[in-house]
Design a protein that fits this description.
By secondary structure, the chain is mainly α. It has helices at 3-26, 30-43, 45-52, 61-87, 90-111, 119-135, 148-180, 186-206, 209-243, 246-252, 255-268, 273-292. The two termini are 15 Å apart.
């Protein structure tokens, strides 16, 4: 991986952690996903038109099919992530979401596709598992000190984190294919996928317009922040994929877990901060070892 690609990924990781903290602070649901996606369409329309006005009219069925698949995967990812943030701590959901995808992909390849794995890869799996254990509470799990509400919050974080990771793995493969094989613009993939999300989420908003207006009044500032910065983070990653292998880019993105654990844990004042930071570091190192091994 070139230094330029790595720099793009680190910058993207910082931005990605930032907008996830904003989404957590907003406490929104699928309607927040609609607000932020709709604002994204407005804010980034000039750039999308400049990049795609003479390209998109010549697309065949493959680019449109990929954009549709990407949009749906991102939609499920975003809505499930927001639900996880409403029911659990960011310092549980976020590292699990970022780290579980590569782990599941590796285990599937070993168990089903009979792929070989090196000793470094095995150490990577151990690192991810230990990291998840620390984020889940570490040795404190065996002391039974948590009350019922804290236990429920932890279980929700584990569940939503892993399910979100499945969709992260899915859209990473789809979008990577788009930029590397179909040679589509990262900007157009992200922008047109957002357009599809708005269409799919519109019925959720229209179902109760008075409540949606009330939520808009409370959440529009957070939604605008997410709309402005989230495309920058992901488009930077897609540009990095154009010059570096997906198998290297995807694990390198896990640097965002460290930013989220450090910044989010401090700003949100979530408990077990140092233990969860240690878990995030282990997951990041483990995923990197999996990519190399």
């Amino acid at each position: 991986m070139s230094l330029q690609a790595f720099a793009l990924i680190v910058l993207a990781g910082l931005i990605h952690a930032g907008w996830n903290i904003a989404a957590k602070k907003a406490g929104g649901d699928a309607r927040f996903a609609f607000f932020s996606s709709a604002l994204l369409i407005v804010v980034w329309a000039p750039l999308a038109w400049w990049v795609g006005h003479d390209v998109v009219p010549h697309w065949g069925w493959q680019p449109w099919a990929l954009v549709a698949a990407s949009g749906v995967l991102h939609l499920f990812y975003y809505v499930i992530l927001l639900r996880g943030y409403r029911h659990a701590d960011l310092t549980v959901v976020y590292p699990l979401a970022r780290g579980s995808g590569p782990l599941m992909s590796s285990l599937f390849a070993i168990a089903v596709l009979d792929e070989a794995i090196s000793q470094l890869g095995v150490l990577g799996i151990v690192g991810v598992v230990l990291g998840v254990f620390l984020i889940a509470g570490g040795p404190g799990l065996f002391l039974q000190r948590r009350d019922a509400a804290a236990q429920q919050r932890l279980y929700h974080g584990l569940l939503y984190g892993v399910v979100t990771g499945i969709f992260i793995a899915g859209y990473t493969v789809v979008d990577g294919y788009g930029v590397k094989v179909l040679l589509l613009s990262p900007i157009l993939i992200d922008y047109l996928g957002s357009c599809l999300r708005v269409l799919l989420l519109a019925p959720v908003v229209l179902r109760n317009l008075p409540e949606a207006r009330s939520l808009w009044t409370e959440q529009w500032r957070w939604a605008l922040l997410v709309a402005v910065v989230s495309p920058i983070a992901y488009v930077l990653v897609l540009f990095a994929m154009q010059s570096a292998p997906i198998s290297h880019v995807a694990p390198a993105r896990e640097v965002s877990m460290l930013f989220a654990a450090l910044i989010g844990g401090h700003l949100l004042k979530e408990g077990d901060r140092m233990v969860r930071i240690g878990g995030a570091i282990l997951i990041a190192l483990g995923v990197t070892a999996l990519a190399i091994g």
